[in-house]
Amino acid sequence: MHDRPNIPELLDAVQRFLDEEVVPATSGRKQFLARVAANCVRMVDRELAMERKQFEEAWHGMNRLFGSESAPSDRIERGMAVSGRLELLCERIQDGEFDEDSEHYDLILAFVRERVREKLQVSNPKLLEADAKRGIE
Amino acid sequence: MTGNEIAERLAPRLAEACGATGVTVDDIRTMTGGAAREAWRLDCSIHGDGAEPVRRTFVALLFRPGGQGRFSGVDEAVLLQAAADVGVPVPRVACAGEEELGRPYYVMEYVEGETIGRRLVRDERFARIRAALPEQLGNALAAIHRVPIDALGFLPRPPEGKPVARAAIDEVVEIYRAIAMDPHPAFELAIRWLLRRVPETTDTTLVHGDFRIGNVMVHEQDGLRAVLDWELAHVGDPIQDLGWACVRSWRFGRDDLACGGVGRREDLVAAYEKASGRTVDPEALRFWEVFGNLHWGVITLMQVRPFLDKTYRSIELAGIGRRAAETEWELLNLIEGKGV
User: Fold this and answer.
1) Collapsing DSSP states into helix, strand and coil, what is residue A113?
2) Parallel, antiparallel, or unpaired: how do β-strands B37-47 and B216-219 relate?
3) Where do runs of H (alpha helix) occur along chain B?
4) Residue B216, beta-bridge partner list
């Protein structure tokens, strides 16, 4: 539908401009903010690259634990559907249903860990790498 | 208010405080400008009788009128003085007031050193002093917890009728419920974990509330010179400060060194126990470390709200928006007993 450059290529151009031209030409607070901006662009790039896979894994995980539901096809609806199911999980945790002495505690912990891992794969993959070196996965 | 106006109005108060015949402000410039407080650096000449003027540097903290804080800037100056009196390393307060600037302020001596955590944890020039820091931090905390609180009526105090730690959980959970835009099951699990482990503390003291690498002034020769950022001080469980000092977000990449990336948790605890005479229950410390990570995660969610509400659309706030996941990950590690 659109000509090249495609989305990752455009994001790469913005990120390079920030890192290679704005950061060296600025100092102090402006330089710090330019680094933050470049990092935000990298985050968008990673999210777009992993979006489909992360959605499918989260949805399958929820289907296994809480019963099967069909997934919406629209991107925005998908995000809302995942949030809605996680809200329900939060309520059940608040009610004490998944406390440490409950039957499904370990399964819930593992499920929640996977969802947090997905967030970090987008927002801060370096933290995951550092922990993997310490044997925390 | 411009720097020159501030200088003109503070000079007479500084002269009085220094017992000088006059003070000339040779240079004034802004150091940081937060929403709630501004910091100005003042390079001054102190004039005495006849002799050459003495050059001294001060920092003036100006607070928003009315204030958002839990107590006023003038109260904070009183707190710093009370801390200094029992040997807490803090900047010496020169003067405090409200009338001169139409808003609460205090002026303190400028303390030379480094506060930026990344540099303290990583730079070679601090390598030698890093070894001494856990002991210095433990000693400073023990002194903070010795500050007499009876005369400091402005400090927030825990409500009667429930354990201090339970009140702390309730306060953070209430904020979380009010501000979170997205579900965080890891926070919910951590809250359940905490609720089952509320320490029954009766030993309450002054708690600094934000004691960590990043909020202390460190000099490369002699180490800890001043404990800064007292605006979250309150009366509570002293172990809260030790747990907060070990929160992962201020280890700056040295995750193996739980005490602010500069030392082991055990080093901080040993120094604190020796200096305070208290015994630190490892379970209570773990409770407060988990609490601290949750608290910090909720603070990151608070910090991004002005961006999401489109009242302050800074890229800096946008960048904070997704940091809560780091605290969620660490909370899972802690409640599963993974890592240090």
Assistant:
1) helix
2) unpaired
3) 3-18, 73-85, 117-122, 127-130, 133-144, 164-179, 185-195, 239-245, 265-276, 282-308, 315-320, 324-335
4) B227
B256 touches chain A (CB under 8 A): yes
- Does A136 sit within 8 Å of B322, measured CB to CB? no
Q: What is the DSSP letter of B258?
A: T
| Residues in Cβ contact with A73 at an 8 Å cutoff, skipping those fewer than 6 apart | none
Establish how many alpha carbons lie within 13 A of residue B275's alpha carbon, considering only the half-sphere containing its beta carbon: 22
CA R_g for chain A:
19
Lookup: tokens for B36? 């709630």
CB spacing of A83 vs B188 below 8 angstroms? no
Counting other chains too, the contacts that B135-138 makes at CB distance below 8 Å and 24 or more residues apart are B135/B267, B135/B271, B136/B223, B136/B224, B136/B271, B137/B211, B137/B216, B137/B224, B137/B245, B137/B259, B137/B260, B137/B263, B137/B268, B137/B271, B138/B267, B138/B268, B138/B269, B138/B270, B138/B271, B138/B272, B138/B273, B138/B274, B138/B275
Q: Which domains does chain B have, with CATH numbers?
A: 3-109 (3.30.200.20), 117-335 (3.90.1200.10)
State chain B's mean pLDDT as an integer. 94
pLDDT category at A121 given cuts 50, 70, 90 is very high
In this structure, the strands spanning B105-109 and B54-63 are antiparallel
Q: Using pLDDT thresholds of 50, 70 and 90, give the confidence band for residue A99.
A: very high
ipTM of the complex: 0.96
With pLDDT > 70 as the criterion, what percentage of chain B qualifies?
98
Tell me the nearest-neighbour CA distance from A134 into chain B, angstroms. 7
* The predicted structure's pLDDT at residue B70: 83
* Partner-chain contact A90 B315, CB within 8 Å: no
Exposed, middle or buried: residue B199 (CB in 10 Å: 0-12, 13-18, 19+)? buried
| Secondary structure element (H or E) that encloses residue B45, with its range | strand B37-47
Of the two residues B339 and B12, the one the predictor is more confident about is B12
Rounded Cα distance, B79 and B85, in Å = 10
Instruction: Tell me the two tokens of residue A105.
Output: 């505690």
pTM: 0.94
CA distance B87 to chain A (A): 35
Report the distance separating Cα B297 and Cα B244, nearest Å: 12
Q: pLDDT digits over B39-64, tens only?
A: 999 999 999 877 789 999 999 999 98
Return d(Cα B11, Cα B225) in angstroms, integer. Answer: 26
**Cβ-based contacts of B193 with chain A (< 8 Å):** 100
Task: Return d(Cα A28, Cα A43) in angstroms, integer.
Answer: 23
